[in-house]
Amino acid sequence: MPVILSLIKQSKFSDYEIIVADAGSKDRTIEIAESFGGRVVPGGLPARGRNNGAKEAKGDILFFIDADVRFYPSDFIEKSISYFKENNLTVASFHILPHKSNIYLNPLTMNLFYNMPQQALQGLFPLGAMGIIVKKEAYDQVGGFDESVSLAEDVHFVQQAAKLGKFGIIPGVKVYMPLRRFEKDGYLSTGLKYLACGVHMALIGPARHIKYDFDHYDKK
Hints:
The chain has 9 helices and 9 strands. It has helices at residues 2-8, 29-35, 46-56, 76-86, 107-120, 136-142, 153-162, 180-185, 187-203; strands at 19-22, 39-42, 61-65, 70-72, 91-93, 96-98, 131-135, 167-169, 174-177. Strands 3-7-5-8 form a 4-stranded mixed beta sheet. The chain has a 3-stranded mixed beta sheet with strand order 4-9-6. Helix 2 (29-35) links the parallel strand 1 and strand 2 (39-42). It is globular and about 40 Å long.
């Protein structure tokens, strides 16, 4: 579980709790989480898992991180939380890079199709995924992640929370995403689905009926 291994490598920050929302994993996720003092709660689809985790959290800042991302440097959490507090942010997210590059997804294409739009539109159409920091009071006011949204529930949550205060993009740290969805479902079809979802959100509202699988990676 890459995110837990990244967490325990944080060299200068220890004032946090690890809560893992597990949706019936078949690997050593629960064992690894508990070995480092993490608490495990029932998962499900992403919105439900995040909400279940938030119910158990004791802090006034929530940091949602997807289980299969990796982040750097070793003081990632310290830098992120410090920037969040110093700039009085209500909700924040990160630029994203692929953790391996190919002709379709690489730093150039990720910057062009996600990071640059995220930067340019942050005041009008906030984008946040893979990693989200939010004040607990804002999370409560929004009502958590909308479990009826089928795709980009994280973006929808960020946009709702941003209405209560200030949204920001944490600089100086790196979040790397896996490519398994693109490799499994196809780069073109996945990209077009994300594009359709973005247009739907901008013109109509959150996507509640776009089919988006989460449990098909191990199926042949």
